[in-house]
Amino acid sequence: MATAVGTKRAFSSIVDGTTSGDGWGPSRASPSVQDWRTSALEDRGPRQRLGVDGTYSINSSARSTPRTTPTPFLPASSDSRSFEPNASIALIGIRGTGKSTLAIIASVATRRRVVDIENLFQEATGFSTAKYRKQFGSSNHNLRQEELLRTALQKFDHNAIIVCNGSSLERSGQALLQEFARTHPVIHIVRDAGSIHKHLEVLEETKLRELLSMSGPIFRRCSNYEFYNISETKAAQSVAPANQLSVPAFLTLKRAERTFLKFLSLLAGQKSLSRARENTIPPIEPGFPLSDVPTELRNYTCAVQIPLSSMLAETVDIEELEFGSDAIELVIDQCDDSRNLDIRNQALTTERAELISHIASKIRRSTVVPLIYHVSTTANSKQRPDLTCYLEHVRHGLRLAPEYITVDLSLGDESILDLVEQRGSTKLIGHIHAPIDWYDSFWLEKYETAKRLGCDLVRFTRPASFMDDNAAIQSFRNKLTALSETIPFICFNTGRAGRRSACFNQTLTSVVPETMKDDLAARAEQTPETAWITAREATHALFASFTYDPMQFFIVGASAGYSLSPAMHNAAYQACGMPHHYQTLQTPTLNSLQDLVRNPNFGGTAISLPFKVEVISLTHSISRHARAIGAVNTLIPVRHLNDDGSIPDDLGLFQERNQAGSVKALYGDNTDWIGIRSCIRRGLSPANAVMSASCGLVIGAGGMARAAVYAMLQLGVKNIVIFNRTHENAEKLVAHFTRLASNPPEGLPEALGQDSSPKFHILQSRHDAWPDGFRSPTIIVSCIPTHQVGENPSPDFTIPEEWLRSPTGGVVIELAYRTLNTPLMRQIREDAHQSWICMDGLDLLPEQGFAQFEMFTGKRAPRRIMREEVLRSWTDEQGQTDPGMVQTRLEAIDDQEP
Ligand SMILES: O=C1C[C@@](O)(C(=O)O)C[C@@H](O)[C@@H]1O
């Protein structure tokens, strides 16, 4: 057993920051750190170079290149990243990276217990690890720590989030964690040095950086995943009411929460619904129409390529990248030399690995589309890429759990098989860019190889010289399609002459960000396989070539005239380069729907009040969510029925979007619940995280109230109080959901049907006492009109004080947006304490509209555009705008989670 003894410091004391911080540096690091560094330097054999022809050459000069400051990087030994659905997750990393906070976030969302090794140590010994070491010496401390870690990893190997302390990473602990990582996710939590420094305070920042550099490789060796915890500085102000002066501190954590939970859901691999159900880690956005359909199976999708070097410039607007794109491809390219980041002649240093992790996390934090991780090997340099560097970069990519990763098919079978084995839930794209004729057997052979080795899809690109090359590619595509067993393929020509083939490639065509198209020629010089068209150009080409048709969309409702949906959707179409049009149909009956449907360019319609229930009788099929709610707010046309006359599945429905023709059937869905769920999630503090005793209050008993109840059930709320003046309607609603709970449909969380069913209570009058057995509500959704409807004046509703007793506050959502400053909103802002967060219809409308946009167009919605447009177009009932409120909310949009 090797331990840090004598005058040398223990690894744990360093990474835990428990030293006084006086004057230690790399030379005084623990032997375990030093030993590993030395061996890492020595182990690296002669370097090999990789070429498109699949041959490698030894580069002797690399051997003699002196390695300077950056610390070399060695990822954990190969492992399969396949875990049992409820396998415990261990978090490791230096103190101050946020492990404990992330553990709590994960524990609440996944209903797992937090096991903190440092706490266990204190409970077992009565000392902190630092004090114990001081008192009994390092050897004793390490023995005790090892024993404790071993027992904890065995005892809590399921359903726990295990937070490791620095002592866990002493040499014996490293072996235990490496072993644990073979069957469990072990996540290395990384954070910027500045934030860690602020947290620890005990070290000088330069020393901290040295420490990070030294400890990084050890953490990486013991882990199979890496999460870069971006420090959130600003709260998502828009969640707080416009005139709520101070923003509750918890809101700053909201984005970190979402990014981490998304990461967890990715590494858990939600490849199928049944797998998702077994898993205690919920997918981040179930219910979004496109989130259940694999991107590579949809038609005419594109992936916007963003080079790492451009991301480093920090001028990229990440959310804008997503507009009109179905994936974001992070291209690990040659970076600025001064940063020593050229992958062709540099090993993946700790610094570079961290940089890549940071950028990947930044992209995730601001977007919803999948991430493709691509290590570029084709830079226009005479020097060929180095095999070791390439593999290190790809392996590092797998640690970030991207949805897709490319692997160069010119690698030997063994290397590819190794990556296939380690991919976990990441899908592997066998990639090759070569100047070889499409008629050459080379491509078919590579396709068969990729299939044989277990790639999930392939990407073949070829630099085109002539327009005719675009015809040749079609014949190659036909050949692939005719094969008996296929995997999805991405296949297009690059360069100016290749643009046409890129436009008509069906799957994940590479596109260039709109803002970078002016430097295309220069970029292509650097990287010949770079994309040549933008997402908007690709979309334009599909419409201009009659592959797609301009469609007409509507909102149908009795008082739809005030709706902001047309402005919101039209702005989104424009941002994505779609020539669609969205308009209002204000009508007292649903009769005119027939006329809309007769129009061959009918693309779909939003259904507004009071038709959300009535319209169901006009549909041929509705989604499971709409059925569970008993109301529809979105209709899409179906133009191709299955042979047996039934409606195609989700993928089939998406494949016929944007194409005109006669309508055979109507399909209905409900996106209101998705919008309500987003608003609840955004406004609910960790203190109010949903637990079995959490209670929700729904005001009203109409279609929207049903969507609100469903959203609450989806979030696991099991105690729901309905306030409605007409008791009979409330009873109908309760009967509906009680029936549903006794026979839960697919997709409702297990919580609904298992252990205890949801409990409902009806309140009819404001004077009713809050019911016994129900806690004060932390989620309140008001679904009653806030403006005059016909002869009925707007109900000036406020909540009786007695019902507002939650000590931790909660979230109040007023669904309407015609009148914003309602009595209820005023009451919460003025009378309730600060822990209450208000959301209104201007928050909700875009959230339900994103899912609607997906259903209408088959594309992800340009979220920021839609949020902004709603605010910009809003006026009150007198046609007045509120520039101050709009400005505050517009400014806050950048900080909102996607
Ligand atoms: O209820 C609403 C609001 C809405 O009708 C509007 O634009 O106002 C749009 C609908 O999709 C949604 O269900």
From TrEMBL:
Residues 841-871 form the SDH C-terminal domain. Residues 555-635 form the Shikimate dehydrogenase substrate binding N-terminal domain. SUPFAM superfamilies: Aldolase, Aminoacid dehydrogenase-like, N-terminal domain, NAD(P)-binding Rossmann-fold domains, P-loop containing nucleoside triphosphate hydrolases. GO terms for molecular function: 3-dehydroquinate dehydratase activity; 3-phosphoshikimate 1-carboxyvinyltransferase activity; shikimate 3-dehydrogenase (NADP+) activity. GO terms for biological process: chorismate biosynthetic process. Residues 60-71 have a biased composition (Low complexity). Keywords: Quinate metabolism, Repressor, Transcription, Transcription regulation. Residues 697-738 form the Quinate/shikimate 5-dehydrogenase/glutamyl-tRNA reductase domain. It holds the Pfam family Shikimate_DH. Residues 1-80 are annotated as: Disordered. PANTHER family: AROM/DEHYDROQUINATE SYNTHASE, QUINATE REPRESSOR PROTEIN. In the N-terminal section; belongs to the shikimate kinase family. In the 2nd section; belongs to the type-I 3-dehydroquinase family. This is Quinate repressor protein. It comes from Polyplosphaeria fusca.
